[in-house]
Amino acid sequence: MVVYQLADREVDRMFRALADPTRRDIFERVIGRGLSVSTLAHDYEMSFAAVQKHVSVLERAALVTKERHGREQIVHGNVSTLRRATELLKAFEEIWIGRATRIAEILGEKGSE
Amino acid sequence: MMTVISTVADPETLSLTVVAEFEASPERVWGVWENPRRLERWWGPPSYPATFTRHDFSVGGESRYYMTGPDGGTPHGYWRMFTIDEPNQLEFANGLAGDDGEPQLGVEPMAAHVTFELIDGGTRMTSMSSFVDAAQMKTMLDMGMSEGMTQAVSQIDELL
To answer: Which CATH architecture has domain A8-111?
Structure first.
């Protein structure tokens, strides 16, 4: 039980991390291929420190991991974390598809006019 | 006949939009929401049927319901209606209730906005659900609303 609660908090951190458009953009760009913090910083109209801060938020949310390569820090996207969120929403999607299916059955019954 | 046109899950805004079309007028589709005896035939899955003990389908009105699980458990829930615009749209909060059936304090309800559009030969129903956070989503799921819930929840537990 405690394990789940911790896990939920983890997912919350992820949602908050993705609520910011810059962080969302960073995350999307580092999925599949790693990019250095300086490469990322180059593409945004904000300071290196500001980009680094965004990366840290993503890192705390387990959405990215940082890896040191010489003087560079390479940021990698962590897709499995995003999968968790998607799975939660998918469960609700199944609920609504089930509901729509049952509504159609009720509407299709004879004498239900 | 029913066609699910699209489902869009947005993990960034924590929202889910499901669009379905029915071969029935908006008035008739509205009826399955308004009539509690009809509503309880589809709100919960067959394994977790819902019973509405109160259904005040008016602005500011509230509903009380419980679901009966295969293990005999009866989790309670409530609705609070914000918009009732027959037969165009409705907005309501859907939250968890305690064993006394009354809303549980400290647990944020989820928000639902449902629209009904007249289309050629029927109605397009768009349901938008908005969630506060992952913990709330998980709590609502644990209430047992899911079709094939055991499977869905165990998949999530695996991932968490």
So the answer is: Orthogonal Bundle (1.10)
